[in-house]
Amino acid sequence: MQVGNLSVEPIIDGVARLAATDAYRTGGGGKGSGEQDWAPHRDLLDADGMLELALGGFLVRSGERVVVVDTGVGALERGAFSGGRFLASLAAHGVGPETVTDVVLTHLHFDHVGWTTRHGEIVFPNATYRCDISDWEHFVGPDPGATRKLRPIEHRLEPWRGSGPLLPGIDALAAPGHTPGSTIVVLSSGTSRAMLLGDVVHCPVELLDDEWAGIADVDPALALRTRQALVAELEGSETPVAAAHFPGLRFGRLLGASGRRSWVVD
Ligand SMILES: [Zn+2]
Ligand SMILES: [Zn+2]
After folding, report:
1. Is the pTM of this model over 0.85?
2. Cα 109 to middle of ligand 2, angstroms
């Protein structure tokens, strides 16, 4: 996909398949954990009622910059999560690890930092790694798994705080709640704009129903307010958006015709 002069490609690492009602059980009392909640949204599930979450990231080319936004889950099979294809998917776009200039992390959950390092070695040897400082402080140190994975990039880290410009055509938009430093990545060039939503939403249903729960939110109430603010901004805006786990990492739009929202895949 083109956003003005920027090119954006989904980079698939793997997939997670979860029973839809289980996925939303941690959601602080919102909808999604009952079979009946899904009745109007069966089109978002597969034939067996399973919720398919893509795993991976996005390749953004902006001028001289070769940017990876999120790095998938890594080469692992853990419960519903299965990854390992990230570097092959990048190679299919002609990008080797040494070509990547910047790694931008929407947040530091394990399924987004999988290919930051491997066996303690930095995967993208020439890249500057970037994330919100609030997530670094929340995960690195307190969380043993995140610490083991991320400590090796510390000397290559240029963190940001809150909203602001990151790179030419790439801005951070603070979207806290899922994690403290959860960020929406806004791509813009000329009059064109697109957004990478990270885990602010996991499934388009969360954009359609304000009473829906989130998944694995650190602060569910704040995450819901952040989602509602996003919905208000997107409704009828025609801005293409893709979240970190939407099927195939495809972009879509939130349309708001006659008070009834709908999700349309590009
Ligand atoms: Zn997450
Ligand atoms: Zn995630």
Report:
1. yes
2. 6
